[in-house]
TrEMBL record:
This is Glutathione S-transferase-like protein. Gene3D superfamilies: 1.20.1050.10, Glutaredoxin. One of its GO terms (molecular function) is transferase activity. The keyword Repressor does not apply. It comes from the Bacteria. InterPro entries: Glutathione-S-Trfase_C_sf, Glutathione_S-Trfase, Glutathione_S-Trfase_N, GST_Omega/HSP26, Thioredoxin-like_sf. PROSITE patterns: GST_NTER (PS50404).
């Protein structure tokens, strides 16, 4: 498998089917390239070839060719996405140094949201779920997208959108969140802007195409096996 990956003519994304960090990079691949290969692995039984590729042993890992056609492995989704952004098409991380730094800060913050959402899905009791739901919603509402616009910064898709979109993809199993935002949106402009962004980004083509056909089943099975209160 390692030899096959390193000889591939397109970028190869090594993936775990429900990993939100993998999805962040899959979104950029869909937005920028579309021609790439995706290989899913079992994180509970990582193949030896993967451990040879990735020094961290975490997904995603992206294998690409350099200018001399030598295979190079990139790891960490934020790094992978900045490479894809710079190497292919019009840069999505654009603007002044301050504007780009601000976007990187929000990209980093998205990792907090991903972690809180994962812990929320792992809650098995109603009290614990309620506490973690409050924490997650509070963190989610700190995002301040452009009011009335489809993307975080306005009318153009950005790396911030790619970083946060996996959180929105998983909200279908947390209807409590969108119901609360819908109620608040009637009187609170920030909640209305956030809800608009969630709805638009969740249906953006690169986001919808970034998950496999088995994603819903894989996600539900993973958390049902862990007795998730959200899925009861």
């Amino acid at each position: 498998m390692l030899d096959k990956i390193q000889k591939a003519n397109v970028p190869v994304l090594v993936s775990f089917s429900i990993c939100p960090f993998v999805q962040r990079s899959a979104i950029l691949l869909e937005e920028k390239l579309q021609a790439y290969e995706r290989i899913n692995i079992d994180l509970a039984n990582k193949p030896e070839w993967f451990l040879q590729l990735s020094p961290t042993g975490r997904v995603p890992a992206l294998v690409v060719k350099d200018d001399n056609a030598n295979p190079t492995t990139l790891f960490e989704s934020a790094v992978i996405n900045e490479y894809l952004d710079e190497a292919f098409g019009t840069p999505l991380l654009a603007g002044t140094s301050l504007e780009k730094a601000s976007m990187r800060a929000w990209i980093s913050y998205s990792e907090t949201l991903i972690g809180l959402q994962y812990k929320l899905m792992l809650a098995t009791q109603s009290d614990d779920f309620a506490d973690k739901l409050t924490q997650f919603v509070s963190a989610l509402k700190k995002l301040k997208p452009a009011p009335g616009k489809p993307f975080f910064n306005g009318v153009a898709f950005s790396l911030v959108d790619a970083a946060v979109a996996p959180v929105f993809t998983r909200l279908k199993w947390l209807p409590h969140v969108t119901l609360q935002l819908q109620q608040e949106a009637k009187t609170q402009p920030d909640s209305a802007a956030l809800l608009n962004w969630i709805n638009h980004l969740s249906n953006y083509p690169a986001v919808k195409q970034s998950v496999s056909q088995s994603f819903d089943n894989d996600f539900v099975n993973y958390f049902k096996q862990r007795n998730s209160f959200a899925l009861k």
